């Protein structure tokens, strides 16, 4: 018998063995079911967000109709800017359904009026904190969190059960090398788990309707490497040749360490190492600035504003008790005064994220999760980009209203249609994802090499 | 006899190197979690106290302003951390910390820590509760999975029974011995935590906090006892140690990882919430046009004005001793607040319905009974959060109405005038009185009952099953 047909024979025995072990079949079926639920939940969650976003233009239209009724003829643009609400919207990428990331925590739309931006940018949406605490049940969770557990359940007694049942001496008495035996056993399990992971991924991709571009390959490679990593861990534990119970404890310990403990300890460390200036200070300061605007001499406010916008310097001097262009000028100055704080807040968040990016080599689980989120465009950087784009939209709105306000042009019903609108769709951060893939490859290489070395250096003990 | 079995298990556990390593790890983690919890408690508490003092100070030192300007200037309410939240931070990281309190609208609670920690937080937060709820049960499983199966495999079970003792007595002896070993790990850690809790000068050490801590400890004792009994039962029930271990680990994963997530997400799917944009639009619509679509705002204003003229027996607004603007403001605040309250009540009711599914799952899964109990006792659950929200809203309403009545008292032409800066100092600032233990407990009946049912059920049914287990 040559090595190849021997390998095939071993595989077919493994298959029969697997089918006979009812527990394992149940477990695999359970994982398939949870994977399908994960896909279902992720896609419905994103669908819900899409519906919510789709309802926003209707709210804006309704608001405009109301304003048209309130101001039947020509209106002062200041009134319109004050009562008119529009939305900056963050549309999900189709991939978001498979890896929801932070999309449930970070607001995916910002309600905007012509007032100071900083008071509006951070408004949270309605979220149930208890649900956020439990977290998302998406496909990424099933793959990152639960798939390793199936690997562990399938391989914790790779040789030890044969040894404990006394079959191993008989097996090794056959013309089969121990490496081939372990190889066949691992290959069978790998094929099973990878088949499951690919099947779930394929179903997820079809269900979510993702575009068939390079990211399909990226997702599959990431899933494959992550699965390989856990088989590498199983290989190391098998090579140590302890009994089944010790193996199980060791493997679960490794899972606990890499999937639970390292992330939560890293979270503590990152929070301490990169303190983010609290947003509270920002809102307090902005309120103070804006409300002081009412009490300051009008010329002082206007001169500060004209220094930023010299274009409007030659407009009429303000003699009235109240006039809108002055009101919006001090609203904007309020934003300006907290600009350094807002920038520090944003860059603090980004630095925190970068630090995690650097340290996630410590745990392939974090690495895979962040890479999948980056691929789906559901992580912090995308949210910061969205906020950036909301800021730009607010600038555009001001630029649209300023001529009305400063040249004192009446706002007509036709002008509503000319108002700028906003849209933003998540972009994948492919660089982060590729970086993650490289790191994952490194982790796999290290762990598999360690396993092979161990296996070679110790002769397999029959009992 | 039970005593000597217990003693044997206890001693042999202490001699087991695996147990020593694992419990050292758990102890270290508990210590880290306590210290970190204390530190973050202190910094957060200081930050919020400072922020609250700052805004209160700013409020009191405003220049002369028109009261309605002050109503828009508003104030902030910062949520203080609850005393025991250093042990279990519950939903605190996912709720915001500050509400902006202003006229005409109820704002959301913004700036949650979860938004600032990226995806790492999603893997779990290292708190004392996290270690107690997830890791100690694992330690117990590793400790007890071989309780019966190993004796059976080595043939010592037969010898034991030949001494004239029943299987059930053996089981009790083992449960007792293992419980002692677990207590040896957990008790010192909790003692340290309690010491840290009560030595900090900033903690208001009252009987309420002490009672909460005692119940917290009792709750976890029951929870651990459940795991000890459960592991021993499974060990007796399964054919060999290996399957016993795999079964127990499978149950742990199902109960502690999969079910909590699945039920929370199921709740959100079954009872969808409206977005804030939608809710704001509805509130605006109803506040403008009347709750039933009748009686729009301008009609209400006209009726109010007419009744004022009639009441004071004058024929024009100028002659009124009160400002119509101020009274209209007060009326419309009362009206819009009512609309807001209805919508917030509906939203919170939806959340409660979503959470109820997880809560009832506590009857199936002890983890989902201890988690709400622990959060509730720590003052960091959803109910405590809503309590704060409502306190902030009550204050906001009183503040705005007070300012509206000040405006009303200024009489006709109030818009051209301002009130003296001293006025603002007479207005009380926001202080938050957290709810008592009795309040919290009345909301925690279901998890308490679920835990007790589990303890009683396992001890009774499980040990009955043990009596029937095979010896060889």
Automatic annotation (TrEMBL), chain A:
Origin organism of this chain?
Answer: Hymenobacter tibetensis
Does Repeat count among this protein's keywords?
no
Keywords associated with the record:
Membrane, Transmembrane, Transmembrane helix
- Please identify the protein, giving its name as recorded: DUF3526 domain-containing protein
Q: Where is the signal peptide?
A: none
Task: Identify the InterPro entries for this entry.
Answer: DUF3526 (IPR021913)
Q: Per the UniProt record, which residue ranges are transmembrane?
A: 20-40, 139-160, 166-183, 190-210, 216-240, 252-272, 436-455
Q: Which PANTHER family match?
A: ABC TRANSPORTER PERMEASE (PTHR43471), ABC-2 TYPE TRANSPORT SYSTEM PERMEASE PROTEIN (PTHR43471:SF14)
TrEMBL record, chain B:
Where are the bilayer-spanning segments? Answer: 19-37, 128-148, 181-201, 213-237, 243-260, 444-463
Keyword Transmembrane on entry? yes
Q: Which InterPro entries match?
A: DUF3526
Iron in keyword set: no
Q: Which domain of life is it from?
A: Bacteria
Pfam families assigned to the protein according to its UniProt record, in alphabetical order = ABC2_membrane_2, DUF3526
Instruction: List UniProt keywords, sorted A-Z.
Output: Membrane, Transmembrane, Transmembrane helix
Q: What is this protein called?
A: DUF3526 domain-containing protein
């Amino acid at each position: 018998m040559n090595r190849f047909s021997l390998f095939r024979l071993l595989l077919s025995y493994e298959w029969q063995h697997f089918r006979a072990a009812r527990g394992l079949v149940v477990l695999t079926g359970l994982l398939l079911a949870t994977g399908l639920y994960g896909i279902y939940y992720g896609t419905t969650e994103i669908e819900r967000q899409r519906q919510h976003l789709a309802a926003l233009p209707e709210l804006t239209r309704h608001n405009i109709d109301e304003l048209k009724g309130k101001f039947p003829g020509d209106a002062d643009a200041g009134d319109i800017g004050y009562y008119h609400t529009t939305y900056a919207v963050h549309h999900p990428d189709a991939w978001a359904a498979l890896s929801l990331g932070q999309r449930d925590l970070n607001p995916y739309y910002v309600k905007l009026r012509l007032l100071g931006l900083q008071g509006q940018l951070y408004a949270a949406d309605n979220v149930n904190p208890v649900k956020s605490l439990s977290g998302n049940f998406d496909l990424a969770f099933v793959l990152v969190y639960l798939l390793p557990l199936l690997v562990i359940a399938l391989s914790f007694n790779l040789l030890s059960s044969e040894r404990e049942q006394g079959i191993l001496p008989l097996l090794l008495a056959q013309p089969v090398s121990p490496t081939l035996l372990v190889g066949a056993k691992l290959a069978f399990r790998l094929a099973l788990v990878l088949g499951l992971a690919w099947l779930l991924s394929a179903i997820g991709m079809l269900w979510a309707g993702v575009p068939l571009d390079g990211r399909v390959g990226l997702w599959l490679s990431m899933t494959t490497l992550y699965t390989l990593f856990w088989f590498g861990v199983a290989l190391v534990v098998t090579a140590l040749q302890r009994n089944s119970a010790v193996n199980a404890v060791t493997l679960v310990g490794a899972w606990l360490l890499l999937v639970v403990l390292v992330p939560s300890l890293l979270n503590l460390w990152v929070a301490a190492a990169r303190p983010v200036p609290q947003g509270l200070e920002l809102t307090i300061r902005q309120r103070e600035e804006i409300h002081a605007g009412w009490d300051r001499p009008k010329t002082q406010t206007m001169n500060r504003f004209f220094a930023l916008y010299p274009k409007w310097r030659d407009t009429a001097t303000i003699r009235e008790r109240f006039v809108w262009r002055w009101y919006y000028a001090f609203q904007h100055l309020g934003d300006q005064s907290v600009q350094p704080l807002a920038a520090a807040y944003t860059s603090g968040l980004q630095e925190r994220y970068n630090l995690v990016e650097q340290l996630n080599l410590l745990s392939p689980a974090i690495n895979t999760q962040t890479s999948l989120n980056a691929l789906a465009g559901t992580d912090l950087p995308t949210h910061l980009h969205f906020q950036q784009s909301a800021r730009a939209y607010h600038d555009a709105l001001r630029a649209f209203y300023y001529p009305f306000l400063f040249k004192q042009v009446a706002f007509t019903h036709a002008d509503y249609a000319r108002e700028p609108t906003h849209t933003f769709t998540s972009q994948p951060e492919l660089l982060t994802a590729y970086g993650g893939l490289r790191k994952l490859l490194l982790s796999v290489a290290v762990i598999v090499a360690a396993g092979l070395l161990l296996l070679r250096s110790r002769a397999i003990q029959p009992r | 006899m039970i005593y000597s079995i217990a003693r044997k298990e206890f001693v042999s556990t202490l001699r087991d190197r695996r147990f020593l390593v694992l419990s050292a790890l758990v102890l270290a983690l508990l210590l880290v979690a306590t210290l970190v919890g204390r530190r973050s408690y202190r910094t957060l508490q200081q930050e919020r106290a400072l922020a609250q003092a700052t805004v209160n100070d700013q409020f009191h030192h405003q220049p002369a302003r028109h009261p309605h300007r002050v109503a828009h200037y508003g104030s902030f309410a910062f949520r203080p951390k609850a005393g025991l939240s250093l042990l279990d931070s519950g939903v605190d990281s996912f709720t915001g910390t500050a509400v902006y309190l202003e006229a005409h609208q109820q704002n959301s609670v913004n700036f949650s820590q979860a938004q600032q920690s990226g995806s790492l937080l999603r893997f779990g937060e290292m708190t004392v509760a996290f270690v107690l709820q997830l890791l100690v049960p694992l330690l117990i499983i590793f400790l007890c999975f071989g309780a019966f199966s190993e004796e059976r495999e080595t043939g010592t079970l037969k010898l034991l029974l030949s001494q004239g003792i029943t299987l059930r007595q053996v089981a009790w002896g083992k449960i007792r011995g293992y419980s002692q070993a677990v207590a040896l790990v957990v008790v010192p850690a909790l003692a340290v935590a309690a010491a840290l809790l009560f030595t900090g000068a900033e903690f208001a050490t009252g009987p309420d906090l002490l009672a909460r801590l005692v119940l917290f400890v009792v709750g976890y004792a029951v929870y651990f006892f459940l795991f000890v009994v459960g592991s021993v039962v499974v060990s007796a029930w399964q054919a060999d140690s290996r399957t016993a271990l795999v079964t127990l680990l499978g149950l742990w994963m199902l109960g502690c990882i999969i079910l909590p997530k699945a039920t929370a997400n199921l709740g959100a799917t079954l009872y969808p919430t409206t977005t804030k944009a939608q809710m704001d639009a509805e509130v605006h619509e109803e506040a403008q046009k009347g709750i039933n679509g009748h009686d729009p705002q301008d009609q209400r204003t006209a009726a109010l004005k007419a009744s004022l003229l009639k009441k004071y027996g004058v024929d024009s607004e100028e002659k009124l001793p009160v400002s119509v603007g101020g009274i209209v403001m007060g009326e419309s605040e009362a009206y819009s607040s009512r609309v807001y309250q209805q919508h917030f009540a509906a939203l919170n009711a939806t959340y409660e319905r979503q959470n109820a599914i997880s809560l009832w799952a506590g009857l199936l899964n002890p983890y989902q009974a201890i988690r709400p109990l622990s959060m509730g006792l720590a003052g960091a659950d959803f109910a405590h959060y809503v309590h704060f929200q409502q306190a902030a809203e009550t204050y906001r309403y009183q503040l705005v109405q007070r300012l509206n009545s000040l405006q009303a008292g200024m009489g006709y032409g109030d818009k051209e005038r301002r009130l003296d800066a001293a006025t603002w100092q007479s207005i009380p600032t926001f202080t938050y009185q957290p709810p008592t233990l009795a309040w919290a407990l009345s909301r925690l009946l279901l998890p308490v009952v679920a835990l007790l049912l589990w303890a009683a059920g396992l001890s009774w049914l499980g040990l009955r099953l043990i009596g029937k287990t095979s010896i060889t």
